[in-house]
């Protein structure tokens, strides 16, 4: 009789403990997540305002550019315009050209669709700031490229 009583009490305690454990683990999983879902407009506004800061320095510009480049996206032209103007404020022409190269590379297999659109949107800013595109500077072709040894006569 005592054996039956203790086994039933143990069963009830075990069931209660499992229910409590599962409820606790669900709550703790919810509390551990700090990921905030950010809309595209909020993302654009955040980086645009970051690049438009008047006291931005070279390290911060490079850090933000690397953060954007690490994301799986091609930034909107308004973000690129703000980044190019930040490059101009810190007087770093090479960074501006390299960023344009990175944006072109980021377009990937859709380069024929996205890159002309980006250039069309960026052209007034590029003219205003006096920044040449990598194609205008000849950076789209290797400088010391030689023809293939199989094509030589």
TrEMBL record:
Pathway it works in: Energy metabolism; oxidative phosphorylation
Keyword tRNA processing: no
UniProt subcellular location: Mitochondrion inner membrane
Membrane topology (UniProt): Peripheral membrane protein
Pfam family, one: COX5A
Keyword NAD set for record: no
A biological-process GO annotation: mitochondrial electron transport, cytochrome c to oxygen
CDD domains: Cyt_c_Oxidase_Va (cd00923)
Keywords noted in UniProt: Heme, Iron, Membrane, Metal-binding, Mitochondrion, Mitochondrion inner membrane, Phosphoprotein, Transit peptide, Ubl conjugation
GO cellular component term of the entry, any: respiratory chain complex IV
Xref: InterPro entries: Cyt_c_oxidase_su5A/6, Cyt_c_oxidase_su5A/6_sf
Gene Ontology MF term list: metal ion binding
Reported function: Component of the cytochrome c oxidase, the last enzyme in the mitochondrial electron transport chain which drives oxidative phosphorylation. The respiratory chain contains 3 multisubunit complexes succinate dehydrogenase (complex II, CII), ubiquinol-cytochrome c oxidoreductase (cytochrome b-c1 complex, complex III, CIII) and cytochrome c oxidase (complex IV, CIV), that cooperate to transfer electrons derived from NADH and succinate to molecular oxygen, creating an electrochemical gradient over the inner membrane that drives transmembrane transport and the ATP synthase.
Family indicated by similarity: Belongs to the cytochrome c oxidase subunit 5A family.
Self-association and partners: Component of the cytochrome c oxidase (complex IV, CIV), a multisubunit enzyme composed of a catalytic core of 3 subunits and several supernumerary subunits. The complex exists as a monomer or a dimer and forms supercomplexes (SCs) in the inner mitochondrial membrane with ubiquinol-cytochrome c oxidoreductase (cytochrome b-c1 complex, complex III, CIII).
Protein name: Cytochrome c oxidase subunit 5A, mitochondrial
Lineage of producing organism: Eukaryota, Metazoa, Spiralia, Lophotrochozoa, Annelida
């Amino acid at each position: 009789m005592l054996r039956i009583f203790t086994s039933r009490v143990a069963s009830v305690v075990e069931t209660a403990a499992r229910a409590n454990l599962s409820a606790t683990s669900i709550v703790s999983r919810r509390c551990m997540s700090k990921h905030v879902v950010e809309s595209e407009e909020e993302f654009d506004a955040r980086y645009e305002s970051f690049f438009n800061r008047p006291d931005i320095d070279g390290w911060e510009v490079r850090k933000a550019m690397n953060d954007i480049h690490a994301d799986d996206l091609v930034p909107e032209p308004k973000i690129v315009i703000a980044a190019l103007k930040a490059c101009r404020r810190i007087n770093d022409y090479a960074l501006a050209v390299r960023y344009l190269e990175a944006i072109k590379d980021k377009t990937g297999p859709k380069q024929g669709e996205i890159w002309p659109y980006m250039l069309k949107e960026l052209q007034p800013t590029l003219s205003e700031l006096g920044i040449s595109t990598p194609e205008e500077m000849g950076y789209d072709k290797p400088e010391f490229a030689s023809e293939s040894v199989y094509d030589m006569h």
